[in-house]
Amino acid sequence: MSDSGRPAASPGTYAWYVLGLLTCVNTINFIDRNIVFALFEPIKQELELSDTQLGWLGSAYIVVFSLTAVPLGILSDLKSRRAVMAAGVTLWSAFTGLGGLARQYWQLLVCRSMVGVGEAAYSPAAQSLLADYFPPARRAFALGVFWSGLAVGGVAGIWLGGELESLYGVLATLTAVLRDPVRGEGRFSLGRAVLRFELTVWRVARAAWPLWTFGGLGLLAAYAVDRAGLGDAELESALFGAGLVVGVAGTVARAVRQVLRMRHADAGAPASVTLSTLDEFLHAARFVLRTPTLIWTFLGGALISFAMNGLVGWSPTYLQRVLGLPPEIAGRTIGLSGLTAGVLGVLFGGRLGDRLMERRPTGRVLAGAAGFLIGGPLCVWLLLVRDLDLFIPLFFSTIFFFTWYHGPVAATIFDVVPAGIGASVVGTYVFFTHIAGDAVAYPLIGFLSDRVGLEWAMLLLPAVGMLGGLVFLLAMRTVGRDMRRLAAQRADAQH
Which of 35, 104, 372, 430 is exposed most, by the fewest CB atoms within 10 A? Predict the structure, then answer.
């Protein structure tokens, strides 16, 4: 790193160490996230659940993860990124252990939801830290390596289960002592952070009252119906889902109205003058609305998230139910091919994005979109075959192309966003893409599966993925202009 706090032309040994450590943590993050999908079919039979309920089990984590990623990403920009990451690792490990003790559907639902809080503390801060350690020319590759944790952990969560739980304490300690290249080595004050967080959480909770109110009412209604014996599991899931959807919609509508009201405020106000997490979220959201590249990235990312995570989440059940494989064989089948394909895909996509970026500003956008435009037709073919020998190479090819986008998309965000609000914008991206993407995909595929069968329901995934690739491709028209505008702002700030 240079003395100015900006990335050096070539990252040093410590930067590669940071990348390796954060990638390792991200891998275990996704092991935690995806282990439940390998158990969908046994859980369904043991607890007598519908596919819709299984979908909400996957979605509960995503909803909480998305909502908390925003304030925690902002807290990372305002305070210590390493402290936020270490606390997140500790928190999600605790609720992962409690999830193993759950014996009822609602217990498992709550534990899966709380795991999302811990994991939301990690991703925005980690990506912001890596963006500071690696220069723009190497950034997509570095973030592609980081997101290889999604491919490795996402598949290993289905394959290996919880065998790596013992690493949590070590990883939490190591992330707590990482050097922050921009903010220096100032001491982190837990007392001041707790005091500030109490104030900001109260403001966020007050702003998100539709979510807590309608989500809570839906949960209470489902519980009352269950205790009174007035309906089946499908009705309970519908009540809870309806309350959650209304709550999320109301909360988002309030936030959008506030952002639009403040849209023409000064974009150049520094993040440090904001008074709370809610203020910082509104500042990041206004920046997104004024940056066309980010609008296409957010919209395309939500559609891509719907397709990619829906495919990974429901594939083990597909193999068990449609192709007749037992759970352990289904996990192993996806694990061996998906693990290799995912790692190769994210590394190749990140490297391709960097190489194309050397020739034109639109290179990373093109690399990210191409993966879904090529992989979409392969995914359709994959879901139409009934031969395991053909399914495996098609699954490999689909995952390889679908994972191209991780590095290029993340790097595109940092290409057009000031470093001071990088984690805030990534947190906002995580919130939007997951709430509008896989949080919808899991229960929607389950709902359709209950009515038309899983094999037909999953055909929606490649169609949405190809649409996401096309939407992200629209950023080719705007990314060069947004990069030049950011460069001009940096030049003005230096003078």
Answer: 104
- Cα–Cα distances in angstroms (integers) from residue 161 to residues 42, 108, 156, in the given order: 14, 16, 7
Q: What is the pLDDT of residue 318?
A: 86
Q: Angle, to 10 degrees, between the axis of helix 136-159 and the axis of helix 292-321?
A: 20
Residue 177 is predicted with a pLDDT of 59
For 418, phi then psi, to 5°, come to -60, 145
Residues 10, 337: Cα–Cα separation, whole Å: 34
Please give the single-letter amino acid code of residue 165. Answer: E
Residue 222 CB: number of other CB atoms within 10 A? 22
What pLDDT sits at residue 397? 93
- Tell me, what DSSP letter sits at residue 417? S
Q: What is the mean pLDDT of the chain?
A: 74
**CA separation (Å) from 220 to 107, 239, 244, 303?**
14, 9, 12, 31
| pLDDT tens sequence across 281-336 | 566 667 777 888 988 999 999 999 899 888 888 888 888 888 887 766 776 777 77
> What whole-number distance in Å separates Cα of residue 415 and Cα of residue 227?
53
Tens-place pLDDT, residues 404-437: 887 888 888 888 888 767 767 777 787 788 888 8
- Measured CA to CA, the distance from residue 279 to residue 275 in angstroms comes to 6
Domains located in the chain, CATH noted: 13-180+188-494 (1.20.1250.20)
Q: Please say whether the beta carbons of 88 and 119 come within 8 A.
A: yes
Is residue 375's pLDDT more than 90? yes
- Largest distance between two CA atoms of the chain: 70
pTM of full prediction above 0.85: no
- Tokens 């410590």 sit at which residue? 14
pLDDT band, very low/low/confident/very high, at 138 (cuts 50, 70, 90): confident
User: How many angstroms separate the CA atoms of 8 and 210, rounded?
Assistant: 46
pLDDT for the residue 423: 67
| Cα dihedral 466, 247, 417, 20 sign | negative
Count helices and strands (H / E) in the chain: 22, 0
**Tokens coding 331:** 């996990």
Q: First-to-last CA distance in the chain?
A: 22
- DSSP 3-state percent helix, strand, coil across the chain (nearest 5): 85, 0, 15
Task: Indicate whether 149 pLDDT > 70.
Answer: no
What is the dihedral angle through the alpha carbons of 394, 445, 300, 121, rounded to the nearest 10 degrees? -100
Which residues 6+ apart lie within 8 Å of 495 measured at CB? none
Query: 177 φ, ψ to 5°?
Result: -110, 10
Query: Would the pLDDT of 253 be above 90?
Result: no
Per the structure block, which two tokens stand in for 184?
């220096």
Return d(Cα 227, Cα 48) in angstroms, integer. Answer: 16
